[in-house]
Write a structure and sequence with these properties.
By secondary structure, the protein is an alpha/beta fold. Helix content is 47%, strand content 12%. It contains eleven helices and eight strands. Strands 3, 4, 5, 6, 7 and 8 form a six-stranded mixed sheet that branches. A two-stranded antiparallel ribbon has the order 1-2. Helix 5 (199-213) runs antiparallel to helix 8 (274-289).
Length: 378
């Protein structure tokens, strides 16, 4: 027997909903079976088609105009404006579920935070755009076998002012993994969250110096940081107590030696060089990078949140900009749902179809039942 792999293209179907109508012979009044709830009231798109459009744009990075051209090959006229309306309406329906995921992300002992720029169109006719932001807040306890499912919550803002992360994480008192962006400073302080700095950002500056001029000092810093990561590789997927014990036994001495060594190197070089800038940045961040040594719930870097930014960067290379503030907020909702599903190894399109079939009639106080970790494939 010879097996051959073949592909059968997807197809559109028209589902007819038959609703019997009965009339009274005496009073001429009539009754009709009510129309089942649909994701878009009086809309012609079913849950599966809406889920497909959302997944194609925000997971597979296909702009709506390209999707419209693909559907046209199947002799189906779906204009980009129609698809835009469907995206807006479906994400509005899904917003309570995205908000629920946001609450879960902020309920953990540690949150990973980052942001990325995205262009927002300021005038439909002028074609002008300015730089807005998408913020990512992620919870992932898998490295230390935490019980909470991983999730990521995205938020959109028209600028990068520090008031936005302060509003997003208002009241949060855990630990926030973040880079050195000053806009995050409003999160930290007495009675507020504590900061865990990112060692990858420290390393990156030394890598740039080494690649440019082959600095021996930059190479020494990179090698010492690599030794810290060798310990982290060993600590991954151990309990919090085991992680602390391992870090105290092996990483703490390396960390302290690195900080002292950098202080000795700084007076030896010109203060105006990129190397001096890298050392000053490292010395400024290392006191805030140290808490991970005493807390097994923390990580040495913010890499996992930077990875959550990657789908956004791939998407914006294709759709180039969001059309409005509302479009940016719709994108944040869609990315929240799709990337959380992917983090939990759930097919986002199949899960979104299941959610859109139910959410219109689902009780808001039981919205968590629709989360991706509660979905079972057929």
């Amino acid at each position: 027997m010879t097996q051959e792999l073949e592909y059968i293209p997807g197809r559109f179907v028209v589902r007819e909903i038959v609703r019997p109508r009965m009339a009274c012979n005496c009073c001429e009044t009539f009754a009709q079976t009510p129309l089942p709830s649909r994701p878009i009231e009086r809309g012609r798109a079913g849950p599966g088609l809406l889920a497909h459009v959302l997944t194609a744009k925000y997971c597979d990075h296909l702009p709506l105009y390209r999707q419209s051209e693909i559907y046209a090959r199947e002799k189906l006229d779906l204009h980009r404006s129609t698809l835009t309306d469907w995206v807006g309406r479906s994400t509005a329906l899904l917003e309570p579920l995205a908000d629920h995921i946001g609450k879960l992300a902020r309920a953990g002992p540690a949150v990973f935070a980052d942001d990325t720029p995205v262009k927002m169109q300021t005038g439909a006719k002028t074609g002008k755009a300015h730089t807005a932001r998408l913020w990512s807040y992620l919870r992932d306890e898998r490295p230390w076998f935490g019980q909470a499912p991983p999730c990521v919550w995205y938020q959109f803002s028209v600028d990068r002012k520090g008031e936005h992360p302060s509003a997003h994480l208002s009241g949060y008192k855990g630990t926030v993994h973040a880079d050195g962006f000053t806009g995050f400073n409003g999160l930290f302080g007495e009675g507020l969250a504590t900061e865990q700095a990112c060692m990858v950002h420290v390393r990156r500056k030394f890598v740039e110096v080494f690649e440019r001029d082959g600095s021996v000092i930059a190479r020494g810093a990179i090698e010492r940081i690599a030794r810290l990561y060798a310990v982290e590789k060993e600590a991954r997927y151990k309990s919090p107590d085991e992680r602390v014990a391992l870090r105290q036994a092996k990483a703490k001495a390396i960390f302290v030696e690195l900080e002292g060594w950098l202080k000795l190197q700084l007076p030896k070089i010109s203060g105006n060089t990129k190397l001096a800038e890298a050392i000053r940045y490292a010395l400024g961040r290392m006191p805030k990078a140290g808490p991970y040594l005493d807390n097994g719930l923390l990580e040495l870097d913010n890499n996992i949140c930077e990875r959550s930014i990657r789908p956004l960067t791939l998407g914006r290379k294709n759709y180039l900009f969001v059309g409005s503030e509302g479009g940016g907020k719709a994108a944040a909702i869609a990315y929240t749902l799709i990337e959380t599903a992917r983090m939990n190894s759930v097919n986002p399109e199949a899960w979104l179809t299941w959610v859109l079939e139910r959410i219109a009639d689902h009780e808001i106080n039981r919205i968590g039942e629709l989360a991706p970790w509660n979905w079972m494939p057929k």
